[in-house]
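Encode chain A's predicted structure.
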Amino acid sequence: MTTAKDPGPQPGQLRVLHVEDNELDAELVSEALRRGGFSVSVVVVQEEAEFVEQLLSHHPEVVIADYNLPQWTGMEALDVLRRKGLDIPLILVSGALGDITAVECIKRGVTDYVLKDGLARLPEAIRRALQEKRVLRLRREAEEDLARKVEELARSNAELEQFAYVASHDLQEPLRMVAAYTQLLGERYRGKLDENADKFIGYASEGALRMQTLIQDLLAFSRIGRNGAALGHVDCDAVVEEVLLSLGPAMEETGAVVTHTALPVVWADRSQMVQIFQNLIGNAIKFRGEDPAISVQAEKADKQWLFSVSDNGIGIAPECAENIFVVFQRLHARTEYPGNGIGLAICKKIVQRYGGKIWVEPRTGHGSIFKFTMPCDSPAE
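Encoded structure for chain A:
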């Protein structure tokens, strides 16, 4: 045991700040720590001013405090630690401490308590307190690191979306000129040059038009979440009927039959719900099998609605179930099925914006079932 004026601790010693006014009790605590396997440097103080001074100079790893001293109490030592913003374990040592009082002290932030007639338990209490502090420090560091990475990822995503939006927007005008002039070349010179020239002009025109479509899709993807969405109660029955009306020509051409059960009202942006059903039903028509039949259903699942769009089409291999939701991922050549592979990525981004999930499952026999969840009510409800 050392006094406030003694030299500092030696390397490897446990630094203890002991609040105690009885020299014999202080020595008994130090002896208990040594018997418990600790090499210790103990500084004993009695008053608050000494306590504050030694916090700054001794840099204790643990504080041991008598519950009740003539000048001040061990709980007041805890208040000092909090005011200083110090995360140092504090263990109360008392001659008598009732269970109710002990529980109240623990609730207020005391790490543990030991009775003076049970000092043999003190070393284990200190080891446990130091271990808990290490675990809490590691958890806090991990949480801070995770928060920092999430912030960096959010910033990176925001910058990427901004780049995609600006690049797509700025590319539209020069690309429009390229498309217009290649079409003009085709109209004016088709059949007047050799066969290869007609072919090359055709390739240029087709590539420019495809690039225009690609940029428009990329703009639609980058706009999701950028502008303030008009959130409200959306009648999904009405949304699906609107989508079926717009897909009418494709349904008539392919003979596709689309049915739906009674669909719920959800809290969302109506235009985005149209995008989801337009993409899912449109894909079911595009990747159809014989006698295409498509069904849209919904059921309550806790605080969410679980929607499903099932078809009897060509199906999706299980190993591709994740990739199809990635931007520009295509499972088929453009000559087989048109499109840029962005529709499902748009669906995923919209659904995730509302805290939902979207996935695909194989359907018994042939086809696929696309499922997604949406919140039942507004956040305020």
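Residues 122-189 form the longest helix (68 residues).
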